[in-house]
Automatic annotation (TrEMBL):
NCBIfam families: PRK09270.1-5 (NF006746). Gene3D superfamilies: P-loop containing nucleotide triphosphate hydrolases (3.40.50.300). Coiled coil: none annotated. It holds the Pfam family MeaB. This is Nucleoside triphosphate hydrolase. One of its GO terms (molecular function) is hydrolase activity. Transmembrane segments: none annotated. Keywords: Hydrolase. It comes from Rhizobium changzhiense.
Length: 210
């Protein structure tokens, strides 16, 4: 296990104390490695005997039919293309650890969110929430300020982010032209927006830790 992951897991445990429910946010631009970091931190906490669930923000993508109607399909992933109210409702429902909460999960291969695809149990002490806008300072996303107990920001240099985004879209077998449209027409400008409009985090990293 990466020593820094173990160090962060230790810091999370120290801050959690005897809390029944503890929310960890992992934020960052698209392609920064948030889901990888979330899974690795979850595994580190589980190795220490803790119960952990991961809640991805991607499950709150608006459906493509709505985005087409609003002329936003090509910009899927920008702040306006998520169900932020639904996401806030779920995070607030998860907070007290007094009931099971079913959350949606995004299927990237089909480009759609699957409702009620993952249960979060009251017994899950640590909830790792990962997504682009958890520390975003604009719009309704700003209502997340103060709701998390520990925050991590992944903030890779733009050139690293660009390379990772190319790798992502090539991995989905997109043509060079289609991948270029995704990277330069949407993801990279959105990444800059996220990096330039964020609240301070407890920990800021340039790369996701293995």
């Amino acid at each position: 296990m990466n020593a820094r992951i173990d160090e962060i897991a230790g810091a999370v445990l120290d801050r959690a104390g005897h809390s029944k429910r503890f929310l960890v946010a992992i934020a960052g631009p698209p392609g920064a490695g948030k889901s990888t970091m979330a899974d690795n931190l979850a595994n580190a906490l589980k190795a220490k005997g803790e119960s952990v669930a991961v809640l991805p923000m991607d499950g709150f993508h608006m459906d493509n039919a709505i985005l087409i109607e609003r002329g936003l399909l090509a910009r899927k992933g920008i702040p306006e293309t998520f169900d932020v109210r639904g996401f806030l409702d779920i995070v607030r429902a998860v907070r007290p650890a007094d009931q099971e909460v079913l959350v949606p999960v995004f299927d990237r291969s089909r480009e759609l969110a699957i409702a009620s695809a993952r249960p979060i149990s009251p017994e899950d002490r640590f909830i790792i929430i990962e997504g682009n806008y958890l520390l975003f300072t604009q719009g309704k996303w700003a209502e997340l300020d103060g709701i998390f107990d520990y925050t991590i920001m992944l903030a890779p240099p733009i050139e690293v982010l660009e390379e990772r985004l190319w790798d992502r879209w090539r991995g989905y077998k997109l043509s060079e032209e289609a991948a270029s449209a995704k990277v330069y027409g949407n993801d990279l400008p959105n990444g800059r927006l996220i990096l330039e409009n964020r609240r301070p985090a407890d920990v800021t990293l340039e790369i996701a830790l293995a």
